[in-house]
Design goal:
This protein has a domain of 117 residues: DNA repair protein Rad52/59/22 (Enolase-like, domain 1), CATH 3.30.390. Helices cover 36% and strands 22% of the residues. The protein is built from six helices and five strands. It has a three-stranded antiparallel beta sheet with strand order 3-4-5. A two-stranded antiparallel ribbon has the order 1-2. It is globular.
């Protein structure tokens, strides 16, 4: 009886493709698209076309040097946001855009919160975040911190704000959005 059920299940799985692609299929499809030359703006966040079934068999990762080269390119101005904080205008790339760019160019990346520390007076919180990139030949990680005032809830809760700041800074240490830290503020 069990073999009959298993054979019917195997028949269903082998004959009928899934109704929507799995996460791995999407990641592999995006990795394939990242390796083809395109304009700078469209190559960063262009979604995979619907029905694209081309999946590379050799894996979804590339050599680390290629990943870092892609991440070092300028982020298109359409993805850069500006906010006023403490009377100063600050340019930044939202964390979710950074996340999508990493998924596109380094689909096997990982990130983790390393620590959350409140100041002795309880007025600020600091988060340390680590981003790790995995290439076919090596892996590299960078850590950064972000600090937010506990009283400032303009952009979400303070821990979220500090985490997003630390995530963006760790990615900048890998080259992603680094150009924003070197632009003139005049």
């Amino acid at each position: 009886m069990a073999s009959s059920v298993q054979s019917r299940l195997f028949y269903r799985l082998s004959i009928h493709p899934p109704l929507r692609p799995s996460f791995l299929t999407i990641s592999r499809s995006l990795a394939t698209k990242a390796s083809t030359p395109k304009s700078r703006e469209s190559s960063l966040l262009e979604p995979a076309p619907a029905g694209d079934e081309e999946v590379p068999t050799s894996g979804i990762s590339r050599p680390l040097s290629e990943i870092l080269k892609e991440l070092g390119k300028r982020v298109p101005d359409s993805h850069i946001k500006t906010r006023i904080e403490d009377g100063f205008s600050m340019k930044y790339v939202p964390w979710h855009i950074i996340n999508r760019i990493l998924n596109l160019h380094a689909p096997e990346w990982s990130g983790e919160v390393r620590s959350i520390v409140y100041s002795a007076d309880g007025k600020s919180v600091t988060v340390v975040y680590r981003v790790t990139l995995y290439g076919t030949d090596a892996e590299i990680y960078r850590e950064a911190s972000g600090t937010a005032s506990v009283e400032d809830t303009n952009y979400g809760d303070p821990v979220q704000k500090a985490e997003a700041m630390a995530f963006r800074r760790a990615c900048a240490r890998l080259g992603l959005g680094l150009h924003l830290y070197h632009e003139d503020t005049s």
